Structure to design on (675 residues):
């Protein structure tokens, strides 16, 4: 019989020892949640420490990621490849025990948490992915997708506005296999939360369609386990379990106070806590009996073996489905993807349509969603503007029983997120982390500000998430400066690991989608126009995927010598081509470079960069956005916009802000005179 109090005390000891040694960290949360962890990880969690990526494992998210020593202790104790030396190196350079849990760094960590509220929102995405995969792949007698998503969260997660977006969608989608355990300790950094956090949390969740199990003693592992068992029987609702706890449980002088939250207990308090808990082991020493109680390797191996046997039977009965499931969970694209991408780009080039790049995106998506069943789209209440739906992506809906509604035998693959940009972005991160889908979602570019921290997290976690941002400039017109993007594209380019695309026509848009879909380890942002863009004739399509390429040479307009280079993105490529003709009339030859992605171009070889942008030839950039980011490319001038926009029809705005062929030509001419 497992000694549950000692199992919990092992977590408390490791947490306070690691934080004390690092002289940095948050001991209170893991000490307070230790008994909750014993209940979940000791009795319910379906996982295999020897294979952290087993497809049918339960997902566990520590949304209150400052309590990272809780999950590090659990991973170590249950048998993951996280030796005690890593716990000794808590918060040290290149250790696997960073200050906040990081996916891809620590085996067993499902998502990077720390920015509060995003972890629980990631969990909603994971539970959504499980529900959709189950509806798509399970067959009578073969339930190969069948796991829960568990999340621990605290007051801070619930105070962040994103949590409301997440819990509302989870309730609407009836994610009954999502179980959240709320560490209700009433303490945050500033002290008792009652003066600033008066929400009735159980009623709030109930109002959003959740099953609520209230007032559970969070220090009674048996009571928590009973609540989890009850939650697992919920047929049509996600469940919140409210666990009443004391932060820093076991500390004689700091339990229940803000002093236990974000600083070491201190050597003397650690000693007193050991005495109070009856924990006699030395720091970073765990008794063999406690290790034995926690060890989940044999049970995990048996669980996975049983699933493997069930999957073998599934494979025998449904070989094509089994093969597709494996491909999808591995994140591999279909074998015919390159042909699909090639055909989409060539079709765009051949048809040479004049359409808005948002429409060009939808045209590309028609091809890609038909060929890639893993593409899971959506929009933040702007579907008709973002153009994220296709013939292959019926709307995602659930019936009153909570089952996924199928349209002509197909699951819904386009999600109405409502006006919830931040929630959408973080849910997409969770979907990508779970596996089985490539998520994309749309909103106006100016609203990327709402999504920004989740976009950053996708880049940090190297997840294939695709953001469709339409209405990318003052070109959207009458809606005015609140909706007109100015600084957004340059600021998105500053996010390390994020590919930002601003295509100029249908071919560039199709290439942008193809590259984004192939980027298994980075997110992408596609910035698209509302206004129509003429197709730019091209001699070659091969270099578009490099982020920048020579679109037109001086010889194309009757000039022999190259006096300058105009670099343009998106809708401004047409301005550059028109200015090139005007300059030729002045006997000035310029090369036009279309640069749909500065981030992709920056990764190219020095030789290619010099071939596109020759040294010693003045460069002028043209983009309807803040100019600061262009100066690093050695531009002699930039035609941009460093103020907010105005409310007026787009053609009026273009003239007002100087986005005319004449002004571009004059700017180039003036720059050459100064060179």
């Amino acid at each position: 019989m497992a000694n549950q109090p000692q199992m919990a005390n092992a977590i408390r000891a490791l947490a306070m020892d690691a934080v004390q040694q690092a002289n940095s960290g948050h001991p209170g949360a893991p000490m307070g949640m230790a008994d909750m962890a014993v209940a979940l990880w000791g009795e319910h969690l379906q996982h295999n420490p020897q294979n952290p990526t087993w497809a049918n494992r339960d997902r566990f998210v520590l949304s209150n990621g400052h309590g990272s020593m809780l999950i590090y202790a659990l991973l170590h104790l249950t048998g993951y490849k996280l030796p005690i030396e890593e716990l000794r190196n808590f918060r040290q350079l290149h250790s696997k025990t960073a200050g906040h849990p990081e996916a891809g760094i620590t085996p067993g960590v499902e998502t990077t948490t720390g920015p509060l509220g995003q972890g629980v929102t990631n969990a909603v995405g994971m539970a959504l992915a499980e529900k959709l995969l189950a509806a798509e792949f399970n067959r009578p007698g073969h339930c190969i997708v069948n796991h829960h998503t568990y999340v621990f969260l605290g007051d801070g997660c619930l105070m962040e506005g994103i949590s409301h977006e997440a819990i509302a969608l989870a309730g609407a989608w009836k994610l009954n296999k999502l179980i959240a355990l709320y560490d209700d300790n009433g303490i945050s950094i500033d002290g008792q939360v009652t003066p600033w956090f008066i929400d009735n949390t159980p009623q709030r969740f109930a109002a959003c369609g959740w099953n609520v199990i209230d007032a559970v003693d969070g220090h009674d592992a048996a009571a928590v386990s009973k609540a989890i068992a009850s939650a697992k029987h919920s047929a049509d609702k996600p469940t919140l379990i409210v666990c009443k706890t004391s932060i820093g449980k076991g500390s004689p002088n700091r339990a229940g106070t803000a002093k236990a939250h974000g600083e070491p207990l201190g050597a003397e308090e650690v000693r007193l806590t050991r005495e109070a808990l009856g924990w006699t082991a030395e720091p970073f020493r765990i008794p063999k009996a406690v290790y034995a109680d926690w060890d989940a390797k044999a049970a995990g191996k048996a669980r996975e073996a049983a699933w493997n046997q069930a999957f073998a039977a599934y494979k025998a009965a449904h070989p094509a489905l089994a093969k597709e499931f494996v491909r999808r969970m591995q994140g591999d694209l279909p074998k015919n993807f390159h042909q699909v991408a090639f055909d989409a780009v060539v079709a765009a080039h051949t048809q040479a349509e004049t359409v808005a790049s948002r429409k060009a995106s939808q045209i590309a998506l028609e091809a890609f969603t038909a060929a890639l069943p893993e593409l899971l789209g959506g929009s933040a209440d702007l579907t008709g503007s973002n153009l994220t739906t296709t013939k292959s992506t019926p709307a995602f809906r659930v019936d009153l029983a909570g089952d996924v509604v199928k349209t002509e035998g197909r699951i819904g693959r386009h999600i109405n997120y409502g006006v919830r940009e931040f929630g959408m972005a973080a849910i997409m991160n969770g979907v990508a982390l779970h596996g089985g889908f490539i998520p994309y979602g749309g909103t106006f570019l100016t609203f990327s500000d709402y999504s920004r921290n989740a976009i950053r997290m996708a880049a940090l976690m190297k997840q294939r998430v695709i953001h469709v941002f339409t209405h990318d400039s003052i070109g959207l017109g009458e809606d005015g400066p609140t909706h007109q993007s100015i600084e957004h594209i340059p600021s998105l380019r500053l996010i390390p690991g994020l590919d930002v695309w601003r295509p100029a026509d249908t071919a560039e848009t199709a290439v942008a989608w193809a590259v984004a879909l192939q980027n298994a380890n980075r997110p992408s942002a596609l910035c698209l126009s509302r206004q129509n863009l003429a197709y730019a004739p091209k001699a070659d399509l091969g270099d578009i995927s490099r982020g920048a390429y020579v679109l037109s040479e001086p010889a194309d307009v009757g000039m022999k010598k190259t006096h300058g280079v105009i670099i343009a993105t998106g809708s401004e490529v047409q301005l550059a081509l028109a200015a090139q003709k005007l300059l030729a009339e002045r006997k000035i030859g310029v090369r036009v470079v279309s640069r749909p992605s500065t981030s992709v171009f920056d990764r190219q070889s020095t030789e290619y960069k010099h071939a596109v942008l020759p040294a010693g030839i003045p460069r002028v950039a043209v983009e309807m956005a803040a100019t600061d980011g262009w100066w690093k490319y050695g531009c002699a001038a930039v035609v941009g916009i460093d103020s907010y926009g105005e409310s007026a029809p787009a053609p009026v705005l273009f003239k007002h802000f100087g986005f005319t062929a004449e002004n571009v030509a004059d700017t180039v001419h003036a720059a050459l005179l100064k060179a």
In short: The mean pLDDT is 98. DSSP finds 25 helices and 22 strands in the chain. The two ends are 83 Å apart (CA to CA).
